[in-house]
Fold each of these.
Amino acid sequence: MTAHAALTAGELTPRQIVAELDKYIVGQIDAKRAVAVALRNRYRRNRVSDELRDEITPKNILMIGPTGVGKTEIARRLAGIVGAPFVKVEATKYTEVGYVGRDVESMVRDLAEHAVRMVGDERRSEVIDLAKHQAVERVIDVLYPDTRAPQPSGGQNPFAATLGSIFGNTNFAQQQQQQPPPQEPQTPPSEKERIREQARGEIARGFYDVRLIEIEVEETPNIPMGMMGQSDPGGGDLGEMLGGILPKRKAKKRVTVPEALRVFEQEESGKLIDMDAVKREALRRAGEEGMIFIDELDKVAGRQGAGGPDVSREGVQRDILPIVEGCTVNTKHGQLKTDHILFIAAGAFHVSKPADLIPELQGRFPIRVELSSLTADDFKTILTQPKNALVEQYKALLATEGVTLDFRSEAIDQLAAFAMQVNDTSENIGARRLHTVLEKLLEGVSFEAPENAGTVVIDAAYVRERLAGIVGDADLSSYIL
């Protein structure tokens, strides 16, 4: 579901949320119900009295289950249903403070970045028509410079010129000095407008699509970080802080007219939106509606009785704890409170178990759901029924080469049985095994597709002919599948 078609949590009941998730994820009804209730509780919280609203915190969820059963997909699709800011992180990338690695606060900063991009894209979509119109006018200015409106001569900021020379933009003052005074229009205004109107129609019809023109593109000046010292990782971007002072550097490029329209459209849309308002809305949305999915949490759970150095596992948990409990994180867009962010953690917990997590962190994930391993019937459903079914994906890919895949029902049964067999005899990677099995099955068809268009019938005999030998040899299948 695209962002513009996303629904609000108030428009969806838990049953409807589960129905939406059913379109993409097979089985796992307990996990779907848990996330549906968590999402609905956000809508309920917004309707309670103000004095009680801040006291109601999200009921974070811990998903327990083997790889490839849909843990990540459930969280990702849930965020997509309502258009909520969402990031997925792996707990193993973080290390205890004092060791080399990412600090845990970076997951909150990533969420803020994603929210700013989301809100910025929404605001740009609102001004896209005006931005396209202005982009066309700028292209016409380049194609027919005699018809452009006279530009007002702005005064130079001496402070900006000084900083520009410090940071490498020494040609700024020279550009200002060498800029010739505006020429008197030589063409009558009516003739100018006629030329521009004709150019607008020609651009719309693609008359100039192969024409190369020279445009000026704004570039952010390079700031030598050694002069300023190490910046605070959460405090902001030094280039952004000085953006209002430093002059923009202009770089000339030769591009096609469609590419110039794209560049100008991006620049004009950036001028038409209020970035301060975008950041305020993004921080509000991230704090109230954001979701953070922490994968592989079991990898940082300390195993009881394990020997050897274990410098980062418990330390990472203790660093994650204040983020999940609720704190304020400095981002370059402003401060973001994590009190009402929904955290969904997941892990296989094969070697360790949830009880191996520190008690404080266990208490912050009160809802626990166990996801079951997939069966052969689940595999058959995954291959054919979801909106993004694997069989339909391969049919669409090869149809672009003129190849029609005709999958028979017995072939689907055989594929599911083979995938289940390989998972049982080697590492169980869940539904991801279907990708490897299908890719191996259709390897020859994909390779020869450009030369051999037509219909390819995939039946049980076809599947056995290409996969039975590999699946039957456990050592061989562990390498190939």
Note: Residues 106-126 form the longest helix (21 residues).
Amino acid sequence: MIDISKYKWFLYGGRNVTLVTDHPEFDLQLVEGSKFGYRKIGANHYIVSRKMLDIRFKVKEKDAARITTNSTGWKGTIRGVKVEPGIGGKQKPVKVRPGNSTYPDPNDKNLYILDIDSSNLLRAWLDKKAKELHVVFHSEVHWLYEDVSLAMAKQLEKAESQGQYFHYRIKMVKKQRKISG
């Protein structure tokens, strides 16, 4: 049996995700509100579902980062064991550091912060007045794209594949500059 006390626990808040195994009956669905544990052992990353405590899912580092980025820490008791919360992406510090910002200020009314769930894009926000889209990739490299409207930012946010929409509609056509990373 898996020692769930060694995992950091999260409450998932992103788009539906399926972790696929060789046996479809053991595929894991993460939907909004799912509780899961995450643990890194050496170079390996593992996810455990509260609903399937006897199975741990080995995931790629970028997938683990994407899943935890769209989650918040969860503290509680599972099968009589107290579990500790992890630090999810929705809980990271959000200070803007001019010229070297990788986190938007959520209190800035001029910013539109996009809900991102992508294997390529980590987070994005739009400066509505300047019409500048800031994109931070999973590598923590931060780029700025000029002349992006609020409507386009919302289309990116709603796209079935945010990475493809970004690549073909923004990256390939908009003037850009690297901010940091």
Note: The chain has two domains: 4-90, 93-180.
Amino acid sequence: MGKKARNKKVDDSISAVEGGWEFTNEVAKHFDAHVRKSIPLYEEAQRMTVDMSEWFINNGSTVYDIGSSTGETISRLQKKHAFKENVRFIGIDNSDMMVKEARKKVSANNVHFSCCDLRQIILEEADLVVSLFTLQFLSVPERMKVLRGVYECLRSGGALIMAEKLLAEEGRFDDMWVELYWDFKKRQGLTDDQILYKARSIRGVLRPITLTENIRLLRDSGFNSIDVFLKWYNFAGILAIKTTSSLIKFTGYEAVAGAVDGTASENKFILKDKHASE
């Protein structure tokens, strides 16, 4: 009775318990509509992911979507590359309800969805791994373990496309970004109460970190060619390619690596104006 009494509506069709957000059957059934109200530029992030995939998916490629939810990304990728031969798409999610919805959405022979713990997966050799708004639910040590596994599975020249909710680099920006994010949600038709209840439901469940910290994790995992392809206040998309380049470069930042194999000679990140020398 007590637990039921604490359920609050976070959308017209979805309710959640304070500090207990889960991808339940109710969430899975209404996820595609809810995510568009919750994540700014969601459609653009999906479109950009599919567009970038053209550089990495070829005949015989294996593609993973970590945190595949209802299979939206894999559905788009599979359609984009349907003319290529022997391409495999594998979606992984830890919610059985999400996997069931994904299987309803995509039933192609070269698509497989698996329900398993993201922290325990062992990936086969792949050309592209996608992870959109998923790692933000893991602790930093857990993210590092997943990212190292992704790096190890990728062939040389393969890539990780990821998108995450962020903490701002400074507190003054965080207040601005959060308020602007709430304004976005209101424009999508969510009420003040629904926005507040959703924020309370993900306390301790969603664990965002800064853009710099995300890039540092990628670097420490082995990636040495990194750039930001999308940024909206407290959300960002990052492309990380497995290369033999000795210098890590990405928008607005520069990080110095050591040997050609990508090992870092120092752990310090240098914030710099990329136009300063122009």
Note: The CA atoms of residues 132 and 183 lie 22 Å apart.
